[in-house]
# Entry
Amino acid sequence: MERVRAIRGLGWVDATSRRFVLPRSSASNVVAPETALPFELAERDEGPIAIVRGASLDAAQRADVRACLADVVSEVAFLLAGEKSAYLVDPEADVVACLEALVALRGEAFDPWLVVRGGGRAAYLDASLDRPLELTRRREPLDRAYAAAETAAVIRADLDRLMVYNDWLGFLEGDLLIARAIGLACEVARGPRAPREVQVSLSRRDVLVLAANVDPAETHALAEALVEGMRRLRVQLRHPEVRAVPYMTLSAGAACISDTTRTPLDRALDEADAAVQSAKLEGRDRVVVSRIEP
# Structure
């Protein structure tokens, strides 16, 4: 059988009454209580996983729902929010299992690239239907790509005024905006003019891009494509304290390394961080590129 198989239809679960109805159940015509939550179900080798739409639940309520479904599923993941291919899930969720289920449930048109855990923790997910899911956290893919390259460029892209955006709309929306920035970086990295060897990851709340075997001009073009891409997204920032800036922007700082064997990745990341701070001091929505010679 397939590793993950979708069970079509919606079920519901109500932790208050400890009742539930599975998708395609003979009891599917039973009227759900007002407090019931809809969920989708996918079969896996490890057992069924339920994707529950529970944006308003706290940790204790999520535990109650998990207990209610414990006899019929092996995993429960709570979908807190979603935008296109970016999904916010609860902190306790098994990220890979959740995204595998969503791939099966949404079909071939679904191409997830990021799942953000509640509480600001995030994981970049490269997923497709023709190869296993690969989960990478923080900078592991950058370490491998950097070690394999002779020369490289490290770009740190930082969303301008993100804290203002968070304060205005809440951290859930802020996390989804970071998800959009990751998606943008992935699109730029896969573009026809992008270098062939590009890795995208996440460090703290910044997007990291590593391009292997590129020169400073190519690095600047890649960083500028990130900045311009955020301009095109036109994410509104109508905050009363920032009246002159109607849309969210992105600043990018890059470090070009001419010899990766003599320059540790940590130094390259520090240099990219200094470059992005310089870009912000120049007025935000800017690109600054520096060079590291051995």
Q: What stands out?
A: Residues 140-292 form a domain with the Alpha-Beta Plaits fold (CATH 3.30.70.270). The helical segments are 59-69, 95-106, 140-148, 162-169, 171-189, 216-233, 265-281. The first strand starts at residue 4 and ends at 14.
